[in-house]
């Protein structure tokens, strides 16, 4: 049985939904007003309660200069409120990493993210919010169209940032098009 409120998946080479969130130290982030030279890497993470997110974002912060060299802007976003996002940023100690917060769950769903319910306190002793989005990684072209997308139902087995860097090198060198764009009859 289908759920009429569930959006269609995002399609490569087509426009992604609008995205605007506050960030901790870098003003407001707007995907349409902050287009990168080559791509924008949008990393949606679960929130402060997720130890796997911390490890994942530490790697992103470490590799951010490599994305910068390739003309790729980076933003990490959660549905956490400012205080929780700041606590995550304090753990990361990566001041150059733009940390967005207050992502509405309706907007998360527009982007095709899965939504989970709280299971209480996590293994690191932090209470999960009543509802929160699961991870997603998107690479968006400057024109606002989807180049790459990966969404997950679980916190683990996410795309590796070093592999994304290698893929971006290949894509930029070969002018490789976004794939998965066909929506016609099968």
Q: What strand order characterises the main sheet?
A: 5-4-3-8-9
> From the helix content, strand content and strand pairing, which structural class follows?
alpha/beta
Unreliable stretches (pLDDT < 50, length at least 5) are none
Mean pLDDT equals: 95
- Summed up, the domain count is 1
| CATH topological fold name | Glutaredoxin
Q: CATH class, please?
A: Alpha Beta
Shape summary: globular
Main pleated-sheet profile: 5 strands, mixed
Provide the gyration radius in Å.
16 Å
CATH architecture: 3-Layer(aba) Sandwich
Number of E-type strands: 9
The helix content, as a percent range, equals 25-40%
Instruction: Output the helix-strand order.
Output: EEEHEHEHEEEEH
* Oligomer classification: single chain
Measure the end-to-end span: 21 Å
CATH superfamily: Glutaredoxin
Beta-strand share of residues: 15-25%
Number of helices: 4
Topology:
Elements: E1 20-22, E2 28-30, E3 39-44, H1 51-69, E4 72-77, H2 82-92, E5 98-100, H3 105-110, E6 115-117, E7 131-133, E8 136-140, E9 146-151, H4 161-174
Parallel strand pairs: 3-4, 4-5
Antiparallel strand pairs: 1-2, 3-8, 6-7, 8-9
Structure description:
The chain has helices at 51-69, 82-92, 105-110, 161-174, and strands at 20-22, 28-30, 39-44, 72-77, 98-100, 115-117, 131-133, 136-140, 146-151. By secondary structure, it is an alpha/beta fold. The protein has one domain (20-27, 35-174): Glutaredoxin (3-Layer(aba) Sandwich). The strands form 3 sheets. It has a 5-stranded mixed β-sheet. A two-stranded antiparallel sheet has the order 1-2. The protein has a two-stranded antiparallel sheet with strand order 6-7. β1 and β2 form a beta hairpin. The longest helix has 19 residues, at 51-69. The two termini are 21 Å apart. The relative contact order is 0.22.
């Amino acid at each position: 049985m289908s759920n009429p409120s569930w959006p269609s998946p995002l399609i490569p080479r087509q426009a992604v939904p609008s995205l605007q969130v506050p960030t901790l130290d870098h003003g407001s982030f707007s995907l349409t007003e902050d287009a990168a030279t080559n791509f924008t890497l949008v990393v949606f993470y679960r929130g402060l309660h997720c130890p796997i997110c911390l490890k994942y974002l530490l790697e992103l912060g470490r590799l951010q200069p490599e994305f910068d060299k390739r003309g790729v802007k980076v933003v990490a976003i959660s549905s956490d409120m400012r205080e929780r996002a700041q606590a995550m940023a304090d753990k990361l100690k990566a001041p150059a990493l733009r940390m967005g917060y207050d992502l509405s769950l309706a907007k998360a769903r527009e982007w095709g993210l899965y939504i989970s319910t709280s299971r209480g306190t996590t293994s690191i002793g932090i209470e999960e919010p009543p509802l929160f989005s699961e991870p997603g990684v998107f690479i968006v072209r400057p024109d606002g169209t989807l180049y790459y997308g990966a969404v997950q139902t679980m916190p683990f087995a996410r795309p590796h940032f070093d592999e994304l860097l290698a893929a971006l090198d290949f894509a930029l060198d070969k002018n490789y098009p976004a794939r998965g764009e066909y929506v016609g009859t099968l």
